[in-house]
Design a protein that fits this description.
The protein is 11% helix and 44% strand. By secondary structure, the chain is mainly beta.
Length: 482
């Protein structure tokens, strides 16, 4: 190698090669620079949203005559095509603007390498107003109807009032704030349904931009079949053992609720639960659970069962004398006289619980002879005997009748009277009763064939008929316990 380096010709050739290489490097680096031209192209970006800055939106509200602009820019193809549209921003500075109207320029921000050409519009008209707040009641619009036969109660709204915030010019247009509840086909009560609220003007048009606080409310609504609350009575089936008599029957509640159609409910005035007397086997007090079934044609009853306290005692008897016979239905122009029994009273032997019998008096027993529709003459009239509940007649199969003479008043003979100016004094009758009154005790109202006298307090006779098996079939019936 040292030999070649010492050769003068070799060094000349080597220098020539390096010179060519250097010339080539210089030539390649400078020539393209002088010959290359950078290519730019325009681009139009539509609907660039205007963003506002600097406004206290809790205090002011603004409107502008444009909400977006059209931007024209230019740049290299790579810069234009590989930039997202949200890299182009247009802003409106409202930091120094107060209430009123003004015209403000728009500011823009462009991606790197992109040049601004034009913007339409380049400025906007701005209207700024103070926000006002007013309280409005909340209304609920019911859409659709519940399932067939069901009814919806009045909606309960919480909260019942809300605050609406708008510019003063818009706030005056608010007529109502309401939400909509869909009820189509509903059968179930809902307790907390969230409903979104909207402000409307008097024409029913939605007012946009209204700030409602709170924006939703809770709605509670009861959806159910029509119902009716009925008094609860207790009736009887079966028979008590021959030695027992009921002294008290008390249900734990006085009323039940029946659900059904309005027409069916209109025909109901009370509900009777049935107690099987054969379940009472001994004297004393016991509790019986009675199943309550919906009346025919209705859907359901609440509650479905009820507890009844039943008290029974060993049967006893008591004879009551001098019970007055009352007359009813005496026709106009007739006089009624009880001829048999002459004393116009009867004696009855009654059976029942000792505590009830002990507190009986004549006011608890009604004995009526109804002569309504009978003509003048002598008649055998059956007596209608009413007693308190759980009290019955001994030997009730034997008829109780009275003999009544219905008479027409006799026409008095005309007699001459001395010229004293004083007419004859008629002789009063000690027997006959005319015009609906009787000789024993006047009656003021017609009574049914079996009527119950007012029930005494606990431990006394109750106002009801005697249950089957207690010895008086004509005095059976049903009513609630005392």
């Amino acid at each position: 190698m040292d030999k070649w380096m010492k050769n003068n010709n070799f060094n000349k050739i080597l220098a020539l090669v390096f010179g060519i290489i250097l010339w080539t490097i210089v030539h390649v680096d400078t020539e393209p620079t002088n010959q290359t031209i950078v290519s730019t192209q325009p681009k139009i970006i539509e609907n660039v949203k205007i963003e506002q800055t600097g406004l206290d939106e809790e205090k002011y509200v603004y409107t502008v005559d444009a909400d977006s602009v059209r931007l024209e820019v230019s740049g290299k193809n790579s810069d234009l095509n590989f930039k997202f549209s949200d890299a182009y921003k247009v802003t409106l500075d409202l930091s120094d603007v107060g209430p009123g109207d003004t015209t403000l320029p728009l500011n823009y921000t462009l991606p790197k390498g992109v040049e601004f050409e034009s913007m339409e519009p380049s400025e906007v008209n701005v209207h700024v107003e103070l926000r006002n707040t007013k309280t409005f009641p909340v209304n609920v619009n019911i859409a659709g109807a519940p399932a067939d036969g069901y009814q919806a109660a009045v909606a309960v709204i919480d909260p019942a009032e809300v605050e609406v915030t708008l510019p003063a010019s818009e706030l005056s247009k608010v007529a109502t704030v309401q939400g909509t509840v869909e009820l189509e086909g509903e059968k179930e009560t809902f307790t907390e349904k969230r409903v979104r609220l909207t402000a409307y003007d008097s024409d029913g048009n939605e007012i946009s931009g209204a700030v409602i606080e709170p924006s939703t409310v809770s709605v509670q609504m009861s959806i159910s079949l029509p119902n009716k609350t009925l008094p609860l009575d207790v009736g009887f089936t079966g028979q008590l053992p021959g030695s027992l008599s009921l002294s008290r029957v008390t249900p734990e509640m006085d009323t039940v609720t029946v659900y059904g159609s309005e027409e069916m409910l209109a025909s109901l005035s009370s509900y009777e639960a049935t107690l099987d007397l054969s379940t009472v086997q001994s004297a004393g007090t016991q509790q019986v659970k009675l199943e309550l079934k919906p009346p025919e044609g209705t859907s359901k009853i609440e509650p479905a069962e009820v507890n009844v306290t039943v008290s029974a005692a060993e049967v006893a008897e008591r004879t009551m004398e001098n019970i007055p016979i009352k007359l009813e239905g005496v026709g106009s122009g007739l006089t009624a006289v009880v001829t048999d029994p002459p004393a116009k009273v009867i004696t009855l032997t009654l059976s029942g619980a000792p505590t009830l019998l002990d507190q009986l008096d004549q006011d608890n027993i009604s004995v009526v002879a109804d002569v309504g529709g009978l003509a003048a003459g002598v008649h055998q009239v059956p007596l209608q005997i009413s007693m308190p509940r759980f009290i019955s007649l001994v030997n009730s199969s034997q008829p109780h009748t009275v003999t009544i003479d219905l008479q027409t008043p006799a026409t008095p003979e005309a007699t001459a009277s001395p010229d004293t100016g004083i007419g004859p004094t008629p002789e009063p009758s000690s027997e006959a009763v005319s015009g609906g009154e009787n000789s024993v005790e006047p009656t003021h109202s017609a009574e049914p064939a079996v009527t119950a006298t007012p029930a005494p307090t606990e431990g006394t006779a109750e106002n009801s008929s005697t249950p089957e098996g207690s010895g008086n079939d004509t005095n059976s019936g049903s009513t609630g316990g005392t």
